Amino acid sequence: MPGSSNETARRVAMLREMARIRAFEREAVAAMRSGEAPGVVHPSIGQEAVAVGVCANLRRADRITSTHRGHGHALAKGADARAMMLELHGRAGGSCGGKGGSMHIADFAVGMLGANGVVGAGIPIACGAAQAIRLKGEDAIVACFFGDGAVNRGPFLEGMNWAALYRLPLLFVCEDNGFAAFTRGAAVTAGGGPAVRAEACGVPATAADGEDVLAVDAVASELVARIRGGAGPQFLHAKCYRWEGHTGTDAAAYRPAEEAAAARDRDCIRRLAALLDADEVAAIEAEAAAEMATHRAAAMAAPWPGAEAAFSDVQDAGAPA
Ligand SMILES: Cc1ncc(C[n+]2csc(CCOP(=O)(O)OP(=O)(O)O)c2C)c(N)n1
After folding, report:
1. Of 106, 173, 208, 226, which has the fewest beta carbons less than 10 angstroms from its beta carbon?
2. With a 6 A CB cut-off, is 174 part of the ligand 1 pocket?
3. Is-contact 284 291, C-beta < 8 A?
4. Residue ID of nearest Cα to ligand 1 atom 5
5. What is the pTM of this model?
6. Considering the domain boundaries, does residue 277 fall inside one?
7. CA proximity to 207, closest of 176, 181, 230, 241
8. Which parts of the sequence belong to the Dehydrogenase E1 component domain (predicted)?
């Protein structure tokens, strides 16, 4: 019901979440560049609408799997931003006790099963989680985020096939930002691309403008309803653009400046903001910036993990026989 107060509240909530993701990643990139955060971060700035539009249709009990570019997915699913920032800084109290960094962030309490540094590796994990949901008779679904580069890896085929065969409650979300690291996806992808490949395995594909959160929300809402209704896996192909470099320190000199500038003009945050009250938008963005600056300061002040933490959460398989 466009124009209703419920619809406005939903839009405000989505604007807030996108603003929080952008503010988090601005701090994360600055922390990486200054050396205060020791690991690599892969910013999803410009792509926030995909994470937020999809997760707006998920419940707490639903699960997601993510990628190396996963801060947005985690925050949109409700992960603790302070613990995430501490994690980037390698501090005690981080999502993984400060031992994992950006590409290992997980928050099982909200169904965020993990970022993943291995391209495509979230896909079989999502299939396993969806199969477990089915076996346990739970009322939940899984959303599996991955980039367009992942469709050229084996796990993509294995995952599509398995999910379709077992009609798993699974939403595949291909965030097609046009690049696989420093290479254009189209230069290394044969055939008709991600959606055609999914459909070849019997997983119906639907496209959405990944730079328009209302478009992603509308498509995700329809696909999630189908999945909850027992229709089996669905595939959402969201075209978007990565504003920053592949990592926080990549200047992205391999692409024309005009191309990136044009993407900035399609800013998903400004597009939604244009439909909302300007004062409210300004207040939300200021709040988001303040929240994430506070988390960064807290991270810098937090203690390092104790030396004994090196021996926790690891498996001792014993000495080789
Ligand atoms: C199995 C594997 N191969 C190669 C890499 C190196 N690598 C890291 S990110 C990346 C590109 C991934 O592209 P895409 O899936 O489209 O995600 P994007 O970076 O565009 O978000 C590559 C090749 C990796 N991490 N894992």
Report:
1. 226
2. no
3. no
4. 119
5. 0.97
6. yes
7. 176
8. 17-291
> What is the pairing mode between strands 183-184 and 179-180?
antiparallel
Separation of alpha carbons 184 and 128, rounded Å:
30
Nearest to 85 by CA among 96, 240, 7: 96
Task: Tell me, yes or no, whether 312 lies in a domain.
Answer: no
Taking a C-beta distance cutoff of 8 angstroms, is the pair 247, 40 a contact?
Answer: yes
Ligand 1 atom 9 nearest Cα: 181
CATH number of 293's domain: 3.40.50.970
Q: Tell me if 189 is assigned to some domain.
A: yes
Ligand 1 centroid–CA 154 distance in Å is 13
Number of structural domains the chain divides into: 1
Q: Which residues of 60-75 are buried (b: 16+ CB within 10 A; e: fewer)?
A: eebbbbbbbbbbbbbb
CB atoms under 10 Å from CB of 268, counted, come to: 28
In a domain, 36, yes or no: yes
Please name the residue whose Cα sits nearest to atom 13 of ligand 1. Answer: 180
Each residue's pLDDT tens digit in the chain (321 positions)?
A: 456 899 999 999 999 999 999 999 999 999 999 999 999 999 999 999 999 999 999 999 999 999 999 999 999 999 999 999 999 999 999 999 999 999 999 999 999 999 999 999 999 999 999 999 999 999 999 999 999 999 999 999 999 999 999 999 999 999 999 999 999 999 999 999 999 999 999 999 999 999 999 999 999 999 999 999 999 999 999 999 999 999 999 999 999 999 999 999 999 999 999 999 999 999 999 999 999 999 999 999 999 999 999 888 888 878 887
Token pair in block for residue 283: 């207040």
Hey, whose CA ends up nearest to atom 10 of ligand 1? 181
Domain coverage including residue 225: 5-302
